[in-house]
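Shipment paperwork, digital attachment
Item: protein structure file
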Amino acid sequence: MAEREAGDKLLEGPSKPESPPPNARKHASRTGSGPGAQRARAVLVRVLEIAALAAGLLATAVISAAITFILAVRGNEVTVPDLAGASVEGAGESLRREELQLVVEGSRFHASVPPDFISEQIPTPGTTLKKGRSVRVWVSLGPQKHSVPRIEGETLQSAQLILEQNGFSLGRVVEIHSEVWAPDTVVAQSPSAHEDVAETTAVAVLLSRGYLDNAYVMPDFIGRNYVEILDQISRGQVKISQVRLVDYPGVPKNVVVRQVPAPGMKVFKRDRIVLFLSKGA
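Attachment content:
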């Protein structure tokens, strides 16, 4: 009997799962724990994972492209060298090593850079420039030349004014005694007159202090006979430059009635001394 019941059950097939109670299905639907909600959640998670992966790949691609672009740009740029003071040939060689071109724009005066050497450039040294670009340069003509004015024979004050008016300055002043030039007179100058030099050149001068001579006290010849004083004059340091005869009533002939300079004055060999003698009766 028991065996027959077992056979009947086998013929009937597997038993169907029991359906959950209606209340349980409603509770699962409200809490989102049902099979459909679980499948939707799984799909959403998968979509988010794919989106995150795509965003990461895109960001990586953008960063990689940016780095590649920067490297490519930097690889095509060089730093402009300093060409000041270089020859044109040397400047061209320096630029060729950097794959840059040299363009000589012209020449300009420059106070410190010698002629035929680079004095200025554009762009300035240290500037970043793409390969193949040009660097413009100007070649120095040296300092601008000006003709030195003539100041020989001028007083020191006048010489300084002339130099300043012509863009020069007064340099060293050396004083000497001169038998020819009057005191405070420019005897010589360096650079010489009409020489072409830089505008800022200082002109040195040789200044006369006059002749070097001993000073003497002018003797008193008034009232003395000219013939009597000739011996004293010939033996002394004072030399008579001129003798003049004048009318002087009451005074014998050839007596000194006036003299220039006056007695007691300081005189030098080159001073002009004049005696005035009475003509007599």
